[in-house]
Amino acid sequence: MGSWRGSSESLDEQRTPRRFEPLVGCFCCQWCSYAAADMAGALRVSYPANVRIVLVPCTGRIDVGHLLAALEAGVDGVLVSGCLPGQCHYVDGNRKAAKRVERARAILKEIGVSPERIAMVHNAASMGPQLARCFSEMTQRIRTLGPIFPPRESTGVPGRRHRDRNGCSPVR
């Protein structure tokens, strides 16, 4: 998976407690949610700049592993945005995605991470302002929770390897 961050700052520089701005990854269905995000842009509806949209053919193609891998790669929260219930272009993709989101949330709870870091919303192509509001609400929720991984200085684990902003481990 590529880098979720577009900034030249290192992951640790962005995560100092006084400057924490969460990074939210959003998997958007190409038929509805991506079109809604496009509409929000066309209408000049603002939403947080730290939301990274990933276009997927259908949210039904998203697996639990994708959601957890995004968090492992440094995203602080993951939002899945699919078609409205009953309006999936692939019949039941959004229903499958909702079940997988719940499974991922259960895994997070088991390992002691807040399940609020993963959420699913449903939007039609004409719901750009509502999707922008969902982005803002998710960003605020994650800001309240704080960073998923503490800054490097506070890990206290000698020899622990950290990944750079591109997800690569440093060479020793």
Automatic annotation (TrEMBL):
Instruction: Tell me the ranges covered by the F420-non-reducing hydrogenase iron-sulfur subunit D domain, including all copies.
Output: 26-146
> Sorted alphabetically, which Pfam families does this protein's record hold?
FlpD (PF02662)
The entry's protein name is: F420-non-reducing hydrogenase subunit D
Keyword Iron-sulfur attached: yes
Q: Does the keyword Zinc apply?
A: no
UniProt entry keywords in alphabetical sequence: Iron, Iron-sulfur, Metal-binding, Oxidoreductase
Q: Record the organism.
A: Desulfacinum infernum DSM 9756
- Give me the ranges of the annotated region Disordered: 148-172
Q: What does the record give under GO molecular function?
A: iron-sulfur cluster binding; metal ion binding; oxidoreductase activity
